[in-house]
Amino acid sequence: MSDSFFYTLVYVWIGTGIVLLPFLLKITVPYGRHTARNWGKLIDYKLGWVLMEVPSLMVFTVVFLYGDAPKDIVKWILFTLWTIHYLNRSFIYPFRTKTKNKKNPFLIIAFGIFFNLMNAFLNAYWLGYISPAYGAGWLTDPRFIVGIALFVAGFIINQDSDRRLLKLRQKPTNGYSIPYGGLFKYVSCPNFLGEMIQWIGFALMAWSLPAFSFALWTVINLLPRALDHHRWYKSHFSDYPTDRKALFPFII
Ligand SMILES: NC(=O)c1ccc[n+]([C@@H]2O[C@H](COP(=O)([O-])OP(=O)(O)OC[C@H]3O[C@@H](n4cnc5c(N)ncnc54)[C@H](OP(=O)(O)O)[C@@H]3O)[C@@H](O)[C@H]2O)c1
Q1: What is the distance in A from the centroid of ligand 1 to the CA of 59?
Q2: What are phi and psi of 72, to 5 degrees?
């Protein structure tokens, strides 16, 4: 693939996300608490998660390793962070959820697979085939240092918030309750906030168009979902904390 075709693909991908955002803000994507039966065939919750996340891990690994661009310590760090995140998301996270007998629409899983394939491919192709070596000097560049600090902070926020959510449901048959503690003091969806911080950090570390497009797509995906969750909490719990925002403390 020529470099110019690759960049065109990335710009088209970014443009698609920007065009899609207003639609995503209007509809409620039907999975988890918003799942719906009128979106076609349903698939088991855990199986859906695994099917959705594994392609990212596999495509990223294969494309990165096959690529003939020079690979230095910076690229191996980026590769390791991506791999750790997607190993957890594919094989650990789904099996910690208490969602026995729950299902999600297959169409949503199919969109998720496509989303993950695109982001993994663009990022791995950039690192594996196009980007020159960053050089050891990049390790002390402020973009790398701030980026890795954000990635780690975002990862911790995401893990801590997901852990608090999963702990709420002691039995798979239990419903929903109001989450407290950690950043739930400020927002309804700190797990999404952590995820965004993580990928913005990754984009700073990688300083590449595909990495920024992935960070942007994460916001495009999760901002509307956080607003939906927030509205849902407020309509289901009369004692929901009134000063809690949806996603960004004190703002939205
Ligand atoms: N990078 C991306 O673009 C992207 C996209 C989507 C998700 N993600 C990440 O994937 C993870 C899961 O996403 P998600 O959308 O499924 O998150 P979620 O809606 O917050 O749900 C997370 C888990 O906690 C349960 N849960 C949530 N709120 C609860 C409550 N109040 N009481 C009891 N149980 C509750 C959910 O059960 P139910 O499923 O039964 O509601 C689910 O098992 C998050 O860390 C998110 O950041 C990333």
Answers
A1: 24
A2: -115, -175
